Amino acid sequence: MSLNPFRAARGRASAETLARDTPFQGIANAALAKFQGHRADLERRVRRGDLTVKVARTQAAAAAEALRDQLQQQAKGYSPAPRAFLDRLVDATQKRAKARETQSLEGLQRETNRLLRLTLTEQQLQNRANEFEGRTFVSSMSGSAPAPTLESLLAFHETATQNGDETAREWARRQLEGQRLRAFSDEDQARINQACHRPDQLSPAIVARYVEAMRGRDPEELETFVAEALSANDACACVSAFILAREAPEGAALRWVRAVFQGLGSFPDAALEALRVQEVEDRAADAEAAQAWAEHTAAQAENEARFPGLEPPTTAELARIARFDAKPTASVGEPIGLAFDRRGLTREELDDLTAPIAESD
């Protein structure tokens, strides 16, 4: 058990953040690989006697500090999604709020009619409750209290839909919401989601189903999906289209992604508000994960910069290196065999030979 519970909590939070998939991990690994190449060169120079361990540690510590500064700067506000997604959402939300403030008389009448319809529906739900219960409540056994079943509610919802009875449909939706805890199979949950779906409201389950079904589809299919979502003014479909566009690697270069951008102004209010909040939270989570990886990578570099276990070469090792360097080098491709008066090229000498060839290419 940890003596410091706050330290243990920070450790768990850091581990959870590092477990989050983020493209910043590739950036951090590339920076670390560059540092490790510099560190390997310093270690090689120490083993050859060109540098002392203290000087190598000083230079490696400076490189690790530069790596930390670089990664922290890159992690600040990092997100793999372009900033355009958040900017478009904020712009669409502000325009929607401004239009609501300067609403015309016709718009005010539509809003008033909508509120009146909601009030009328609530009144009809109370007045017709006994009627609805009589058509859906059944007794499972003799003497038991009648209660609705999933099948009776789904059948009642289907009948109400065919008859155009919005009050009955709304009553069935509310009853089906109460059946979620009793529906254990995925199929039953999907049937409840489909029946309870309202175009002007969000359902995370339906959004997840849309995204899973459309992820990886051809651009033509995605373009059709976006067009149908905008024409139906369906909040769940619109949110799903935005999520898919955010994940598209080509970004705004795709026509269907541009269609999502252009259609943001017609998204339902529930979709716009949910997307704006979610985008802010996602970008904050992306930046947090990037900062965690930057800190983790910098700490690893600082630990490696200490050169644990590195010792300076002994006098005998220095003498052996001097004898080796004093021997003439063999030509490139010349077999050495048992010619003890020749030696092969070191890595630095081989790099010096191949550098002019690479530059000429």
Number of strands: 2
Helix fraction by DSSP (H/I, runs of at least 4): over 70%
Task: List low-confidence stretches.
Answer: 1-13
Return Rg in Å: 34 Å
Distance linking N and C termini: 61 Å
User: Helix/strand/pairing class, anyone?
Assistant: mainly alpha
Helix count equals: 16
Shape: elongated
Mean pLDDT across every amino acid position = 81
Strand order in space, largest sheet:
1-2
How much of the sequence lies in strands comes to under 5%
Structural description of this entry:
By secondary structure, the chain is an all-alpha fold. It is built from 16 helices and two strands. The protein has helices at residues 5-19, 24-47, 53-75, 83-101, 105-127, 129-136, 150-163, 166-178, 186-196, 204-214, 219-232, 235-247, 255-262, 269-304, 315-326, 347-360, and strands spanning 137-138, 147-148. It has a two-stranded antiparallel sheet with strand order 1-2. Strand 1 and strand 2 form a beta hairpin. Helix 10 (204-214) packs across helix 12 and helix 11 (219-232) packs parallel to helix 13 (255-262). The two termini are 61 Å apart.
